[in-house]
């Protein structure tokens, strides 16, 4: 079973286990809408890759961590898409939760997904005789996950920086995206009983790279490819690396971060597999042929080509 | 130090510990606005009373549980007050978070408070050598807390029942309010290392009583006394016990539930203290003189007096 399939199975298993038969049907349908079929599931994949190369020895705990990460990410998407934030109509190629259901349901769905992220981890400890070792792993995983999501510098804080009049772009982006990537690599190590510290830099670099890639795609992207609207940063007056560094500066920084991520992978048995995964992911994040095409069209028409749509 | 003061101190200590200096200032201010000075803090009081009569032996864990309960309750109030739900302007006698700050900030504040509820519990396990006994207590407390908040039947699910076309009133109310009361009594026992099962009925009865009291006050209440608008159930078309049972039927049921709550308190050293607390709380919830005044005015003017405002 490959990583994608393992994550998918775990997502479905935990979704049914937590929601069961007595969750209000609309809430359950909205939660399912937010989770399935899902996007690239990049955070749980990264997490699981780290757990696997760290010689995981408790696969059910590993599974639960992957699901918890994806639940937190999905919760933030549901809330960010709401009218008071991005007012987005499309997400992952389909209608957003508040459009498909309603605003109140979207609000509750995000809340329920946040709680569910903890539930799937906690459920690994209930109804069974759990060792002290595993209890501590679960608590440490929840600790790191909470740092990636809550105050003072998780993704919720990242969104909150958008509500401040004065913002440090890097602090904002580190929190907005990087925090959950860092949680992913560190949690992967913890799930396997390994030391998370050597894995922090990988998460930070990839998180920064991912955020810059998002900024770049927001300029050059096709809405159809992205599954969500483009030009959102300018429209919402959000700080963006592509605006601060210029498009070419941003692309250069993106490449530097990817290189740094690959270099940072600690010595371990599956080091080359992780590096390959990073290289493949970087091609998906900012397809260089598409980037070049955009640059050339801008040169042909220096007054601006607008978006390639 | 009395219970109120102990809860207040714990709230302030944990608030500073989690938010620190680097939380975005507006988010931190909004979280503080939602938490302080606070309402009656009835859930943490109930919880702490149970922990104390159960001979608590880990006061820092007890404190953390009280804070976690109040954080979850406050998060639900912030989100419920938002325009897509109740669109309330007043809460606890001051402006609601989205009115004082903004809708996006209110949305993030609720999310951050939910995560913080787990953080304060998890923080009892990090950076210190924790015994297996205490690690398991924390996990069990988080398990029960999650049941009181998330899917399938916590307070979030309770709110979600309002979005269904067909609702069972008791199932809805049990989830909407009762779930967190039940979590409170059970968590109190767990925090003290006691068996939570004998404390479940107390939480359920009080939760049901509290919800009915809310329905009764929504009819007879004064907005100034409640610190929030009245007549909300009718305005929002929400199912209400006062509508289903009639006002006198609802008051009778309220009294029955309070009696049942008092009876359900298990044999323990401080049984009489808990029973006194319940009796005092019932007077605060539905002041019988005020109720009688309303009934008499309705008799004088059988076509309806509207609200006594």
Kindly describe this structure.
The first copy, chain A, has 309 residues and is mostly helical. Chain A has a single domain, classed as Orthogonal Bundle (Farnesyl Diphosphate Synthase), CATH 1.10.600.10. The first copy, chain A, contains 15 helices and 2 strands. Chain A has a two-stranded antiparallel sheet. In chain A, strand 1 and strand 2 form a beta hairpin. In chain A, helix 4 packs antiparallel against helix 9. Chains A and B meet through helix 2, helix 6, helix 7 and helix 8 of A and helix 2, helix 6, helix 7 and helix 8 of B.
- What characteristic shape of chain A results from the CA principal axes? globular
Strand order of the largest sheet of chain A: 1-2
CATH H-level superfamily of chain A: Farnesyl Diphosphate Synthase
Number of DSSP strand runs of chain A: 2
Helix/strand/pairing class of chain A, anyone?
mainly alpha
The amount of beta strand of chain A, in percent, is: under 5%
| Average pLDDT rating of chain A | 90
What is the CATH architecture descriptor of chain A?
Answer: Orthogonal Bundle
